[in-house]
């Protein structure tokens, strides 16, 4: 009889962790990461709306401010990054590498309600935040018409 030592209780994890434990070289279409939104070249974006502006939050850790190129061509806002992958000579064998963005590009069509001349961007703690202010709505003033 052979004793098998488990590092955790049997059937504690999900089916995906069981498959990953048994087969370390599973093709990409069978892995859990394939079905997630974080794929190569795709970054998640949160869009918020306030009374005065829209706010885009692009989750892009590992970059610097100078890596971003933000371009506005008519009504198309494009956010892109290109960063060369640094080749490091290491003595350790890398088994899995999930954190590797080399480039991405996202485009958004802006509404005519947005004041394109006052768009601001900031990059803090891996989050690129774009503030898209809304145009001031000019309400027609009420005029009184005199009856003759």
Describe what this molecule looks like in 3D.
The chain is mostly beta strands and 148 residues long. The chain has 1 helix and 7 strands, in the order H-E-E-E-E-E-E-E. Strands 1-2-7-6 form a 4-stranded antiparallel β-sheet, with no helix packed on it. The longest helix is centred in the first third of the chain and has 8 residues, at 15-22. The termini are far apart.
The residue-averaged pLDDT reads 76
Give me the number of helical elements: 1
Topology pattern, helix = H, strand = E: HEEEEEEE
Query: What structural category do the secondary elements indicate?
Result: mainly beta
Distance between the termini: 111 Å
CATH architecture of the largest domain: Sandwich
Shape: elongated
Number of domains: 2
- At CATH level 3, the topology of the largest domain is Immunoglobulin-like
What's the helical proportion of residues? under 10%
Uncertain stretches:
25-38
Gyration radius, to the nearest Å? 25 Å
The largest β sheet comes out as: 4 strands, antiparallel
The counted number of beta strands is 7
Question: What does the secondary structure layout of this molecule look like, with pairings?
Answer:
Blueprint: H1 15-22, E1 45-49, E2 53-59, E3 68-73, E4 76-82, E5 103-109, E6 120-124, E7 127-133
Antiparallel strand pairs: 1-2, 2-7, 3-4, 4-5, 6-7
Describe this structure in a few short sentences.
With 148 residues, the protein is mostly beta strands. It has 1 helix and 7 strands.
């Amino acid at each position: 009889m052979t004793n098998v030592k488990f590092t955790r209780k049997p059937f504690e994890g999900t089916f995906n962790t069981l498959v990953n434990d048994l087969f370390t070289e599973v093709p990409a279409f069978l892995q859990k990461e394939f079905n997630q939104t974080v794929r190569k070249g795709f970054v998640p974006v949160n869009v918020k709306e306030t009374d005065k502006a829209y706010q885009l939050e692009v989750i892009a850790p590992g970059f610097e401010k100078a890596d971003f190129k933000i371009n506005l061509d008519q009504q198309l806002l494009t956010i892109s990054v290109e960063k060369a992958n640094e080749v490091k000579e290491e003595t350790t064998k890398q088994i899995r590498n999930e954190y590797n963005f080399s480039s991405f590009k996202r485009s958004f069509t802006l509404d005519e309600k947005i004041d394109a001349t006052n768009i601001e961007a900031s990059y803090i703690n891996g989050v690129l935040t774009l503030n898209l202010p809304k145009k001031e709505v000019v309400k027609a003033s009420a005029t009184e018409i005199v009856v003759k």
